[in-house]
Design brief:
Elements (H helix, E strand, L loop, with lengths): L1 H23 L2 E7 L6 H16 L4 E6 L10 H6 L5 E3 L11 H4 L10 H10 L2 H9 L4 E7 L7 E2 L13 E4 L3 H8 L3 E4 L5 H6 L5 E2 L4 H6 L8 E3 L9 E6 H6 L2 H35 L4 E3 L3 H18 L3 H16 L5
Parallel strand pairs: 1-2, 1-3, 6-7, 6-8, 9-11
Antiparallel strand pairs: 3-10, 4-10, 5-8, 5-9
């Protein structure tokens, strides 16, 4: 009888311990993405929240903020570092002012042919370690990428080749893309996503480097800009999830694994969904919205690629940026995508 009571007591203590462990395994995250909620990417961010909740059985709770809800896109990183937010779900190039290496953590601009090559560098070219060698000293942890695919420019003027970029005023993200297009004669203006439509409507800009065809439709850009290019060539940004380093390190390891794997799911779903929708919408914008599509000739593409490669070297001014660039180029050479 005494033994039975002892076993019951031990079982009760064990149950309480398990219950306490389960109760303590809770992670609450405040994340902001630079995409507005109505765009495809905004909807995908919402699916990521749902997937994480399902994978973690509710242990990870995410409050997602969209567009400029809390802070401007370029300020999300610092808001996460200082505790206003917890994680940044935008693009690393917004932080290129801190170190130009952040540009190469976001977009090689003409270096990779498709998203799968970029994912391959991340997964099989030591990309995770390379990125966190950059992120960690800035108090952030790189968690994962989601890549919609090549982007399409929007314009109120024709965009048949590099000659059309002369004096072309356009919304540009910060970083190397501004340098590339300025060298080709354009006039880049850095502004937030939620400012693009009004700037186009009022003629402040002639066009925008915003997103792919599908997201451009969501932003309403083709209501004004009746010229675009497809397939895209100039940019293929890899949007990241990055979380405050001390918060990340405090998470249970299975929560870290869930977030990393949820980003892989998001990446695959996002890339494939965008490929299908962009193909469908390339027809829609022509037939239903009166948009003219341009596919640049090999000669024009060579002019662009020459400008890109010159900009890579010009932009890589720090040891970290040179190391990041070389990591990408070494991987591309190893798979025969670059000489």
């Amino acid at each position: 009888m005494k033994l039975s009571k002892g076993l019951v007591l031990a079982a009760s203590v064990a149950a309480l311990a398990i219950g306490a462990t389960a109760a303590s395994a809770q992670t609450k995250l405040r994340i902001q993405t630079h995409f507005s909620q109505e765009t495809l990417s905004g909807q995908m961010a919402g699916r990521f929240v749902e997937n994480v909740a399902a994978m973690s059985n509710g242990e990870i709770e995410i409050e997602m903020f969209y567009g400029g809800t809390v802070v401007k896109s370029a300020e999300i990183w610092d808001a996460a570092v200082t505790g206003v937010l917890d994680c940044d779900m935008s693009g690393a190039s917004y932080q290129s002012g801190k170190n130009p290496a952040f540009q190469f953590a976001n977009d090689l601009n003409g270096g990779y042919q498709d998203p799968y090559q970029m994912y391959s560098w991340l997964l099989h070219g030591d990309g995770y370690n390379t990125l966190n060698e950059l992120y960690n000293p800035f108090e952030m942890e790189f968690v994962g990428w989601w890549i919609p695919g090549p982007e399409s420019l929007t314009s109120t003027r024709p965009l048949a080749g590099t000659a059309d970029l002369k004096d072309w005023k356009f919304r540009s993200p910060p970083g190397i893309i501004s340098m590339i297009f300025a060298n080709l004669g354009a006039s880049p203006i850095v502004m937030d996503f939620n400012e693009i439509f009004t700037a186009l409507e009022t003629g402040i800009i002639d066009g925008a480097d915003a997103a792919n065809i599908t997201n451009n439709i969501g932003l309403g850009l083709y209501d004004i800009g009746k010229h675009t290019n497809y397939p895209g060539f100039h940019s293929m940004p890899a949007d990241h999830l990055a979380c405050r380093k001390d918060l990340w390190d405090s998470m249970p390891s299975h929560h870290q694994a869930i977030l990393k794997n949820a980003m892989l799911v998001l990446g695959l779903e996002n890339t494939t969904k965008n490929a299908v929708l962009n193909a469908q919408n390339s027809v829609k914008v022509q037939e239903e919205m009166g948009v003219t599509l341009y596919t640049w000739s090999p000669e024009e593409m060579n002019k662009y690629r020459n400008a890109v490669q010159a900009a890579w070297v010009e932009f890589a001014t720090t040891p970290e940026s040179k190391s990041m660039l070389e990591s990408h180029l070494s991987f591309l050479r190893s798979i025969g995508a670059m000489k």
